[in-house]
Design brief:
heterodimer, A: 240 residues, alpha/beta, Rossmann fold, 4-stranded antiparallel β-sheet, 10 helices, 10 strands, 38% helix, globular, B: mainly alpha, ABC transporter involved in vitamin B12 uptake, BtuC, two-stranded antiparallel sheet, 11 helices
């Protein structure tokens, strides 16, 4: 089976600084894969480069999605191809209402009935969004903003979702709830998921496979279970 | 007397409000103050005059042609000047200076094309005036008010309720997130400049028949529009309209009851008062306070 997302010998340069150094990765359809690693390992850079959200000049290598070369295709085009990213830090449109935020998420769709159906699904996953529909995005709590960010991505009906640090700044009880939902999105709705996560323990428990990044390189990749048991990983990322 | 003064205040006030709205849209989209708004109005008035009075095209056709050309001018300005400068990451102040440079180029360009005399529009309507509540209003002035109000409502609906308008607001807030939603921020920002220029051109077509068309027509209106935007709350669409309308009325009342010599003192005095005491304007927008 060919991979839905394939990253081949990917490098990224911020000016002269070489931050990602030859990453190879693939995610097959229906999989749930995580990237873990310390701060500054190049996880977010890789994710944003895949989605075309970084200045294109710094990219070397090849990224293919759904059989098409998307290297430097431009973020809006990549999103319209069905590869959606929930950006690190949520990036809610703070002065738009929850409803308007979702409306922008559905920007590339024209099928009104399909949008309404997906909206109902999203409200089932996150009932709180329905209650806050008329509220401005900026007035939501951190957890609600994360739900909105995920909802805004889902409403585009993507083939694959990239999530960057969905647990960032959230209380444990809130991010566990969000991870449950992400799992549901993968298992029940069949969306392919690739996510970056600081909380390695939670990440490896949730994902089928994981890539471990260290200073811009993939130093290990295996199933989530094997990584969780690996003594080196335990020592470095799981607190012994 | 007062009613008539208020009507003429409303005519110019609507124009100030619309120009102020142009400033606000661009501030939201690009984080900049665009000081050629007024000269874009001048160009609009000249284009309208050329199509309507010189080429004898029907008014509606002249109107549409002017708007289309102004949209193109606004988008060209954004692509050729503003985006390049933003791409070089120069300080915003320099880009604002660049818009002032463009403003003089437009003014001088207009002299090259049309000379320095005043042109008067031939009447647009067959009736000279309409009677509303016992006062006679010049047809062109009434048209200016009605068209301005319609334009405000159309813009409000477009920006607030359509998918594209919402995407425009979203890109102005967070370009990266908008991109991740499939919106092309480069396009929405360019179009915002196009729309602002179209508003300027439309204002030129509306005020030209009332005031006459000349090189510095827009320069003064542009400055007043800026003052209106600040008074309303810079960057706020509705504040801009209100601030502009208010300024137009205050100015006309001053002219009528005090003296036209003092009208600018009062208007710009009001601008200073707001800058000193309430820089966030009536609608409490943070743009100038920071």
């Amino acid at each position: 089976m060919t991979a839905l997302l394939q990253v081949k010998d990917f490098h990224y340069y911020y000016g002269k600084i070489h931050v990602v150094k030859g990453v190879n990765m693939e995610v097959r359809e229906g999989e749930m894969v995580t990237i873990i690693g310390a701060n500054g390992a190049g996880k977010t850079t890789t994710l944003q480069a895949i989605s075309g959200l970084l200045p294109p000049g710094g990219v070397r290598g090849e990224i293919t999605f759904n059989g098409k070369n998307i290297t430097n295709s431009g973020g809006d085009k990549i999103a319209r191809m069905g590869l959606s990213q929930v950006i690190e830090g949520r990036h809610i449109f703070s002065k738009l209402t929850v409803q308007e935020n979702l409306m922008v998420g559905a920007y590339c769709r024209k099928d009104k009935t399909g949008i309404d159906k997906d909206l109902e699904r999203i409200f089932k996953l996150f009932p709180r969004l329905k209650e806050r529909l008329k509220q401005l995005g900026g007035t939501l709590s951190g957890g609600e903003q994360q739900m909105l960010a995920i909802g805004r991505s889902l409403i585009s009906n993507p083939k694959m979702i990239l999530l960057d640090e969905p647990s960032l700044g959230l209380a444990p009880i809130v991010f566990r709830e969000i991870f449950e939902t992400i799992k549901e999105i993968n298992e029940r709705e069949g969306k392919t998921v690739l996510f970056v996560e600081q909380n390695a323990k939670l990440a490896l428990k949730t994902a089928g496979r994981g890539y471990v990044f260290q200073t811009g390189e993939v130093v290990m990749h295996d199933t989530g279970e094997n990584l969780e048991r690996n003594p080196e990983i335990r020592k470095a990322y799981l607190g012994g | 007397m007062l009613a008539r003064v208020l009507v003429s205040g409303l005519v110019i006030g609507c124009i100030y409000g619309l120009i102020a709205l142009g400033y606000s849209l661009i501030y939201r989209a690009s984080g900049l103050m665009n000081f050629c708004q007024g000269d874009i109005l001048t160009i609009g008035a000249f284009l309208g005059y050329t199509f309507y009075a010189m080429l004898k095209l029907p008014f509606a056709v002249a109107f549409i042609l002017t708007i289309v050309l102004e949209i193109a001018l606004g988008m060209l300005l954004e692509r050729a000047v503003i985006r390049r400068l933003l791409g070089k990451k120069v300080d915003g102040t320099y880009i604002v200076l660049a818009t002032i440079a463009v403003s003089y180029m437009l003014q001088n360009g207009a002299i090259l094309g049309w000379g320095t005399r005043i042109f008067y529009f031939p009447p647009i309507f067959s009736v000279l005036s309409v009677r509303v509540f016992d006062i006679n209003i010049q047809s062109e002035a009434a048209f200016c008010i009605v068209a301005s109000v319609i334009l405000m409502i159309v813009l409000h609906i477009f920006v607030k309720y359509t998918a594209y308008g919402t995407a425009m607001r979203a890109s102005a807030m967070d370009a990266k997130a908008a991109k991740a939603c499939g919106v092309d921020p480069a396009m929405t920002i360019a179009l915002t400049w196009g729309i602002s220029a179209a508003i300027g051109g439309l204002c030129g077509m509306l005020i030209g028949p009332v005031y006459g068309v000349f090189i510095t027509l827009g320069a003064a209106i542009g400055r007043k529009g800026f003052a209106g935007a600040v008074i309303g709350g810079f960057g706020n669409m509705y504040g801009a309209l209100l601030g502009g309308a208010l300024l137009g009325i205050i100015e006309t009342v001053t002219t009528a009851y005090v003296s036209s010599i003092y009208k600018d003192v009062v208007s710009y005095g009001l601008l200073l008062v707001f800058l000193l005491i309430k820089p966030t304007g009536i609608f409490n927008e943070r743009a100038i306070a920071d």
